[in-house]
Every structure is written in C-alpha cells, then in structure tokens.
Amino acid sequence: MSAPLLQIDDLSVTYWDRSLLGLRANGFEAVKRATLTVDAGQTLGLVGESGSGKSSIANALLGLVPPSGGTINFDGQDLATLRKGFPPEIRQKIQAVFQDPYSSLNPSMTVEEIVTEPLKVHTRMTRVERHEKAVELLKLVKLPETHLHRYPNEFSGGQRQRIAIATALALQPSLIVLDEPVSALDVSTQNQIINLLYERRDALGISYLLIAHDLALVHHISDRIAVMYLGHIVEEGPADRVYHQPAHPYTQALLEAVPLLDPARQRARRAERRGRVTTDMPRLSEKGCPFSGRCPHVMDRCTARMPPAFTVPDGGTARCFLLDDEPNEQGRSKD
Ligand SMILES: Nc1ncnc2c1ncn2[C@@H]1O[C@H](COP(=O)(O)OP(=O)(O)OP(=O)(O)O)[C@@H](O)[C@H]1O
Ligand SMILES: [Mg+2]
C-alpha cells in the first residue's frame, strides 16, 4: 500500500496567553494528540461541536498556527517542523476554502483577478494564459464566463463560494482544506456546492479535509469520518460505519442531533432520549474521558484515565471503554 497523502500524528495545538512581560502564560490545549490520515483522492470528514478544535487542526495544516507537538507528514515533509512558513510548492499543493464567502473574497478585485491571483504568484503564465485558465476555472465551478469581469458583491453566497472553490483549484492542489464551506448557505445551495465538490474531487483526483458540524452532510461526501470532542479525536473510521454504527457515545449523541425527516421516528427518538441524555456541561477532568460528564454509559474508569483508541469491529477506532472486551486488561490499545 502506498503512503497516505497526509498523515497527522499526535498533533497538539496550544494557545498561550501572554503575561505583561510578553512571556507565555496559561496555555490552552485546543488539540490534544490528534492522529488523522487522508489518502490520495479521498475525503476525510472532520466533525464535532463548536470549539472542539476542528479549525485549529486545519490552521496547523495550513501553517496558520504552529503545532505544539506531533507531526504533519505531507508529501514526504513534516510540516510541523517548518516554523518559518511553508515553501511555495507546499502552499500550491494545499489550498483552503473557508466558511464565510462574504469576507474571503477581496471586494475590489474582479472575479478574473481573484481566480488568477494564485497563478500570478506561483506560476510564470502570461496574461493570455491566465485568462484562458480563468475561463476554464469558471467552467469547473459552473459559472458563466461573463462573470469574470464582475465583482464579489454582485454575487450570492453560493456563487461566491464557487468563486472561492475556483480559486482553490487554480494551482491544481492535491489537498483542499474545506473549513465549514457550506455552513453560511441555505440548504439547497449547500447541496449544490457539496455536489460540485464531489464532482470536482472525482474528476481531478483531489483529496479533501472537510470540516463541518453536520454529520449527515459530511457522510454524503466522505470516505472516512473523524469525530472531535474537546480537542480529542474520539472516533474515526469508514464514513458508512461511523454514520450507521457509531461506536462512541459522543458520535451517537451527535447523530441524535441530526433531524429525522420522518416525524414518527423523530417523536419516537425524542421519547427514547427523554431522561437519558444528560445536558450537563462537560466535566473537564484532565485525566479521564472528556465526554464522561455527559455520557449516559459512564463507568468508574472513564473518569480515571483517557480511554485509548480501541479497534471498532467494522473499521476504525473509538476512544471508549465500552469497546474494551476485557475490562480489567490495560492493553489492546493503539497508544
Ligand atoms: N487564536 C486563539 N487563541 C486562543 N484560543 C483559541 C484561538 N483559536 C481558537 N481558540 C480556542 O480553541 C478551541 C478550539 O477552537 P477551534 O476554532 O479550533 O474550534 P472549532 O471546532 O473549529 O469550532 P467552530 O465549530 O466553532 O468553528 C476553542 O475553545 C477556541 O476558543
Ligand atoms: Mg471552526
């Protein structure tokens, strides 16, 4: 088997307050020894509630925040050690699309200027060649060529996100980090953008790291899904397995938050949940499982130490002692 395109191991991201003297004080570890893999041409969906650390992983991968530990192996290089910025060839190969299509595009530039900006910076293409590429890029995102001379404020959120995707595609990246790319859009536009991403990925052989809150949406396009909770990757595995047979109680709770289209099923689920799921604030125990304060299955040992990554029978891993079939044994973990 060939090496994965991206292999993140034990990645930590810590944000520091500064004391009056400018020294580091009070570190907050937003990502705690996260391990993730993205294979070439595949999509890894990364889900979890607000503040769980998803964007911190994305930003470490984009060189926007320095990791405080771990490795980020991409294309034969450890990006975690590059403290002075990424070399141009890495910046070409990893592109990003962010949530807010209103602030991510420069309002004073035409669409042609926006989508050809990366070509100006990273290639020696002539103006004519760049124009031809701009026409091609707009076709890729299904916008008419006539839009090239217009400005971002003349477009809807969905159209702007298409422009952002076209810009991300300009340098033929091998990985696009999509940080909540459709969260600001209405549902039907979300579907169009997700379908577009899907088509482009398969046609161009790109990999995606797709960050979102909505597990149903992520499942639609991902090959694998990783679930984050308070800085930890608590579950990871094939998208179908994680979505249909979630192993971690947190993933199960996330799925229960997805609205069901069938009202009878919705009512049945509410009745079942009543009195079962606790809505307490998470207990921030340093030692134990971060979900133990909210978990309906909590056991003594869950508060004593962080569960290791147990293998899930149908694929992937979950950090939950429920998967430990030998309760008194310490081992069987991956770490
Ligand atoms: N620059 C920063 N300085 C200090 N703390 C930060 C910084 N950026 C993020 N954090 C904190 O780190 C934690 C993780 O934030 P992050 O943005 O990675 O979460 P997220 O999963 O992307 O959330 P959301 O779904 O809301 O985008 C949060 O508690 C956040 O407040
Ligand atoms: Mg975020």
What can you see in these coordinates?
- There is one protein chain.
- The protein is built from eleven helices and twelve strands.
- It is of the alpha/beta class and 335 residues long.
- It has two domains: 39-65 and 83-244, Rossmann fold, CATH 3.40.50.300; 251-323, no CATH class.
- An eight-stranded mixed sheet has the order 6-7-8-3-9-10-12-11, sandwiched between helices. Strands 2-1-4-5 form a four-stranded antiparallel sheet, with helices on one face.
- Mean pLDDT is 89; it is low at 275-284 and 328-335.
- Bound molecules: adenosine-5'-triphosphate and magnesium ion.
- Adenosine-5'-triphosphate is lined by residues 15, 28, 30, 48, 50-56.
- Pfam families: ABC_tran (PF00005), oligo_HPY (PF08352).
- It comes from Aquicoccus porphyridii.
Approximate shape: globular
Order of helices and strands: EEEHEEHEHHHEHEHEEHHHHEE
Helical amount:
25-40%
Strand order of the largest sheet: 6-7-8-3-9-10-12-11
Q: How would you characterize the largest beta sheet?
A: 8 strands, mixed
Quote the CATH topology of the largest domain. Answer: Rossmann fold
Mind telling me the CATH superfamily name of the largest domain? P-loop containing nucleotide triphosphate hydrolases
Number of domains: 2
Just give the CATH class of the largest domain.
Alpha Beta
State the CATH architecture of the largest domain: 3-Layer(aba) Sandwich
Number of helices: 11
Distance between the termini: 22 Å
Q: In what range is the share of β-strand residues?
A: 15-25%
**Which whole number gives the mean pLDDT?**
89
Which molecules are bound besides the chains?
Answer: adenosine-5'-triphosphate, magnesium ion
- What is the rounded Rg? 21 Å
Structural class: alpha/beta
